[in-house]
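Quick one, tokens below:
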């Protein structure tokens, strides 16, 4: 009876303690968790399960590691905000799976994303045919973002991000058949360098940008 009471007490304590931890970390829904978030969630679940099973061990043997995990999570979140390289390395970045109605098979193989996965995602969006899709991006969280053709099926220009956080996006440049020297020339006309631009995208043969000084 005493062991049962301890299990109930620990379960109740960790329930409210984990709710508090997740409030501190500001977690999102499971489908939106990044790699680091998912790892932390798994470790928290494992530590709590072990603590509830081993009722004779001190509860601090679980509370301290959980506190350390939350601290590391907050620190990594702060670093990821400051460093796009760090954020991309751990969180990944979107992959263009469908472009102008054509499937990018090379990117699918690279991301280990099968045709069955693609068709399943399209069906979940009530899309019967790949030809209905103009652009589709595989997001870092595994979800597929889909942009359908308009009613007249006229081709539209997707705003390709050329610069993000002052860093050049080489794949986007390659997609619009441009290079770094072309972009630098365009920016020179505005008395800007790549490092001075917070965000820039290309659409309709024009460059739209936000300077860091405007933030």
């Amino acid at each position: 009876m005493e062991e049962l009471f301890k299990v109930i007490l620990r379960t109740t304590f960790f329930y409210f303690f984990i709710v508090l931890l997740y409030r501190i970390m500001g977690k999102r829904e499971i489908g939106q968790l990044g790699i680091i978030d998912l790892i932390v969630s798994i470790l928290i679940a494992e530590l709590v399960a072990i603590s509830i099973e081993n009722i004779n061990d001190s509860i601090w043997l679980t509370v301290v590691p959980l506190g350390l995990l939350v601290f590391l999570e907050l620190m990594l979140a702060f670093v990821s905000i400051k460093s796009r390289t760090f954020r991309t390395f751990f969180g990944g970045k979107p992959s263009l799976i469908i472009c102008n109605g054509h499937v990018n098979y090379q990117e699918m193989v690279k991301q280990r994303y099968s045709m069955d996965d693609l068709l399943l995602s399209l069906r979940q969006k009530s899309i019967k045919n790949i030809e209905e899709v103009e652009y589709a991006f595989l997001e870092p969280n595994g979800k597929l973002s889909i942009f359908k053709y308009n009613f007249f099926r006229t081709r539209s220009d997707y705003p390709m991000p050329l610069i993000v956080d002052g860093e050049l996006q080489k794949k986007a440049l390659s997609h619009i058949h441009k290079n770094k020297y072309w972009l630098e020339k365009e920016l020179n006309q505005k008395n800007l360098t790549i490092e001075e631009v917070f965000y820039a995208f290309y659409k309709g043969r024009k460059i739209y940008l936000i300077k860091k000084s405007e933030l």
